[in-house]
Amino acid sequence: MEPFKVHILGCGSALPTLRHNPSSQVVEIRGKFFMVDCGEGTQTQLRRSKIKFTKINAVFISHAHGDHCFGLIGMISTFGMLGRTAPLHVYAPAGLREIMKKQIEYFCNGFEYEVIFHDVDTSANKIIYEDRSLSVETVPLSHRMPCSGYIFREKPTLPHILRDMADYYNVPVSQFNNIKNGADWIDNEGNIIPYTRLTKPSEPARSYAYCSDTRYMPELHEYLKGVNVLYHESTYLNEDEGMARQFFHSTASQAAQVASDAGVNTLVLGHYSARYNDESILLSEAKEIFPNSILSDEGLTIDI
Q: Can you give the residue ranges of the Metallo-beta-lactamase domain (predicted)?
């Protein structure tokens, strides 16, 4: 099975602490690397995670609050100093484009690669990136400013050839791709060998959803049905639900409710408020509703 991993670079909220970096992750899928949010310190965290800067294919920014994008201009500058030539695609809510272009003109003149911005419609659920192996779709979130979540979906692969059966029926290797695509095999005597007898199904396609920042949305689970792993912000405890409402954030219990309603396999908590010295209390509240909850932490790698 091809790698599908999430590397946690930062899982704190806006107020800096010594325990956590601001939001940033790298999604690794089938040899491609995509960054999701880019708070301060992201470059250092990339070094610690031993992810090469040159491997980042694209960046997806959820919204233009500083703890999710203040690290972007620094990383763009570093890419230039490292001699990057491949374009960097940045997907972000529309307002960030003009802000970043001014910074690039001022700080990054003369670099030999292009930064291509794609405006994200934060009110829509649609595919904004697609290649042969995966797609990325947006999820509308509800925050104090336009904000989007992202779902990374692996595309299904073709069935696997059962080599012993193929050898038994003398199927030439040249026909394997046709059979994987649903063609039956006709042997020398005219017998039809169904492709289902010559193949076994591929592994189910996997998916990962990133939802930060957002108030609790009872309808959010509808976008997340069938997702394997969900990262959902869990900024506050239940006792601070009033603050969650005021600042358009979620509690750990609310994140767990979304995970439960969506039927995901695993919930990953993050975007912790600096007011809590021990995030295990957030985990305890989440587990009361959704037992398969875990805490994100810098340096954690999650296998999807």
A: 204-272
